[in-house]
Design goal:
With 291 residues, this protein is of the alpha/beta class. It has two domains: 177 residues, no CATH class; 88 residues, no CATH class. The chain is built from ten helices and nine strands. The strands form three sheets. Strands 1-2-5-4 form a four-stranded mixed beta sheet. The protein has a three-stranded mixed beta sheet with strand order 7-9-8, with helices on one face. Strand 8 and strand 9 form a beta hairpin.
Length: 291
């Protein structure tokens, strides 16, 4: 009996897992250059860990400022908005109590900043120069996404890919920040895989219930989403460019589940249901058509 696409991909992933450690690589690059997070008043880009913290927030605008700076600009932070902490450190000279000599010690403090999109009454500066990188859409992947029934809203902002169940939307980093087009679609497939778990679709426990990060249910849901992505990559013919990274991602979550590779089989079953929903296979079968 001929094996299905899903069976073949599951076998390939397990084969890779059994070969040992696979390094996972993030398929996109956080915004840099003129698009990097920067302070609205000084114009200076944030550095170190602050760049990562701010780039991971779901805002398309790179400009940030403190509550005080917002007031000084004649505006205000909108009621209910939550700030993001950033760290500032420098070296300061102090007197050594034992030797009486001056010495340098690190001085650290933190500030809370808000993205310009969280404020009101402040005119936005000209948009930064867009990243000049051509993104070539993959037709089969675009058609698959477009045909998904009850498709969630897909947004592009910030430097983080995620699905937000409470508002039922998928957020993706800008397409041009991805190293390869295949990586973009694999990431998008992962997030819409999560979206199939919404209460209005397949109602999976890992999505409908509030679960702690790295909990058992959360880890299982990540396996389902990535298996869904691997299957959809195969359906659209881009699996050879993405399967190693999918296996590496799955491996990273299996560590939280005591490296139980049998869970890949269980996740594949849930992922199959997700793929069938995304590709509207039930409707096709009801029409008596061959899938």
């Amino acid at each position: 009996m001929k094996k299905s696409v899903e069976e073949l991909i599951t076998e390939q992933i397990i084969e890779r897992l059994e070969k040992g450690e696979i390094p996972w690589k993030k398929p996109w690059t956080p915004l840099t250059g003129p698009n990097a997070p920067r302070n609205l008043i000084t114009g200076k880009p944030y550095r170190g860990i602050n760049t990562f913290i701010l780039a991971c927030q779901a805002f398309s605008c790179p400009y940030w400022l403190t509550y005080k700076q917002a007031l000084e600009k004649g505006g205000n932070v909108r009621r209910g908005e939550k700030g993001t902490p950033v760290v500032f450190w420098n070296w300061v000279e102090v007197e050594d109590t034992e030797t009486g000599e001056d010495k340098s010690i690190p001085f650290m403090r933190h500030y809370t900043v808000f993205n310009l999109e969280q404020t009101e009454g402040i005119e936005a500066p000209p948009s930064p120069t867009p990243i000049e990188k051509l993104f070539n859409s993959i037709q089969a992947a675009e058609e698959l996404i477009a045909a998904m029934p009850q498709r969630p809203e897909i947004r592009h902002s910030g430097s983080r890919a995620y699905y937000k169940p409470s508002y039922d939307y998928v957020n993706m980093p800008p397409q041009e920040t991805f190293h390869q087009e295949e990586g973009y679609y694999c990431t998008l497939f992962h997030e819409i895989g999560h979206a199939t778990g919404h209460s209005s679709r397949l109602a999976r426990k890992g999505v409908t219930e509030c679960t702690a990060f790295v909990s058992h249910e959360y880890s299982k849901e990540e396996l389902v989403a990535e298996m869904t992505a691997a299957f959809l990559c195969a359906e659209t013919g881009i699996e050879q460019a993405t399967i190693d990274n999918s296996a590496a991602y799955i491996q990273s979550w299996l560590k939280e589940l005591n490296n139980d590779k049998s869970l890949v089989i269980l996740a594949a079953g849930q992922a199959q249901k997700a793929v069938d929903f995304i590709m509207n296979r039930k409707a096709v079968e009801e029409l008596g058509m061959v899938v």
